[in-house]
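Supplementary Methods, section 5.1.

A reviewer requested that the exact input to the structure prediction be made available. We therefore reproduce it here, unchanged from the version used in the analyses.
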Amino acid sequence: MDKQMISKEETQAYLDIFINTLFELVPETDVFNIRTIQDGHKPNDQFHTKQELLEIAHQYRSLNSKGGQILIGVNPRSPDNKYPTKSKDVKYCPCLFADFDDVGDLTWKDLHKAILDKKLPVPTLTINSGHGFHVYWKLNELLPPKEWTSFQKRLNHNIRYADEKIKDPSRLMRLPGFMNTKKRLLVECIIIDVNNKSYDISKFDEVLPELPQIKTEEREIVIFENMNYPATLEKAENYCAKFEKINDGRKTTAYQLGCVLLHDFQLQMADAMDIAKEWNKKQGNYFTEKDLQKQIVDGGLYANGPKGSLAVEKRKPNVGVEFWDEVIAKQYDVEWLWENRFPIGFVTSLIGLKHHGKSLVTEFLAYMLSLPKGNPMWPDNIRRHFYDEITLIINTEDNRYAVSSKRLQQLGAAGNICWMKIEADKDGKKEQFKLREIAKIKKMLEDIKEEKGKYPKLIIIDHINLYLGKTAKHQGAQTQVIAPLNNLAEEYKCAIIALNHRRQSTEGPSENWDLGTSELKMSIKGGIWMVVWDKETNWRYFMFNGSNLAVEPTNLRFKVEGHWKNGTYRIVWDDEPVTGKIEDVCRIHSDEEEEHKKTYEHAEEYLRNMLTGVEMESSKVLIEMNKRGFKRNMVYKAASELKIVRDYEGRRDNLKSYWSLPNTNV
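The structure derived from this sequence is encoded token-by-token as follows.
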């Protein structure tokens, strides 16, 4: 497909003409909506100024070469809005335009004649889209959206062959200089005529007749009617009367109840809540009405989404349509710290092996948030929405604090970082800090607000495994740790990123953290990301592994230049997104684990040889094994596998331990 692509130089030339001809009056700070559409993926929206678009638009060529469509919102949007894709986000309109799509054998001369027959001025710019023609008239003033819509309706209604649907201020059109991949064909979308003229809107007002008034009859719209609904309601009541708590997990059971009532029985929300309230009474009113409704709604949303995926599509049950519209609007009204990656008001999990770069990613986030307004943008060329923000890092290790603080100081972000570190008590043991005692974090947030004048926009927990312990695979991880953190993120309108060390052992509670158990994924609502270091190529992959939010972000990768341990380093992101699947990158994990497993086997073999026929003091065993590159935890693992016999000698102040193999006469 690449051989048929428009050349990079031609792409740049067409973009220069398109932008400089039509958008001369548009201020430099306003942004344009660029939407990319690719088969099998959700549309992706990004926002660029005129200058940014000229500088980076060629980067869309890679996606275009793989069949992706490149569209532009012709009317500029305000940069102050977080996600300006709607008509309400349009500030003003610099031109009128018409779309002559699928015109068959008609040539541009035929369409040009149809335009001139209406005594309209000669178009400023004309594009051959590959399947038709796009025609633009540049205005010598910026029109308000409401007035522009009126002229668009009149224009496209009165020109023969024009598409009358082109009337919405947020309308997207094809960007010239790229291939049109619609209908799975590959044709050029190029500019074929330019005259650089601009026109007064009065010229169009003179020649375009007003739209005819259409009389409409009032009628009642029936959305859905279930003739057997009373019988269905009775069945649901009888079923849920027997619906009891499971393993004392009343919250999980309420969630399941939502799945049953709103998906299986297809009940109206009001009826579902009446049944749920009766069930809640049997539980001793365990939930408040607000919390109960949330569990029912979340369960219904998940059940009505696609099976086998965490992403919940915008699908509705057949009933309760008005309510579900409201719920879905709320579900997708997400404010993003980094677009489609780290949402405000949710917990996001970042998983990876030790030294693979989890902390480097979060330190990069803290650095980007600390910068003033303007460039740089995020690595995927998405504009930053937050500036000069504070980050709170909850840290658990002395050496990690020392290294992280040095790196952030080198980046120039130290002034925007607050630390909450777990100190050692007088016995030298770490304080047993439990995140379910959320009041400690709240107090810290209030202290930051008093000192800095605002709350942190990002909270990093590095790492969360210490708090989860053996509950990582069980519901305790959700009810005791993750759920309170989700509530905290929502209350303080911040993003929380929980770093998770994945153990190289294939055993233990963290075994499934890389892929995520279903319970864990449902509790970590913001999504799960992985950082994987391919040591052969030195690329570190930043990979998406699922979310409860309907997003499909691109995967990225980066390299670390310099010495990351002493702070003199920088992160270099790859310009191109990662096209491989997460399963492919996870093979890096598998390869390392296989080698690590071999290392355990080597430790076991060496320990067996060392203790054959002898008894050795355990301290000397550890010293000898360490000289040969075996860490303490590997030695203890090997000792456990070999069922080492331990004998003790001496008293408490001078106690010595001796190791020997079982059934060995020493």
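The mean pLDDT is 76. These observations are discussed further in the main text.
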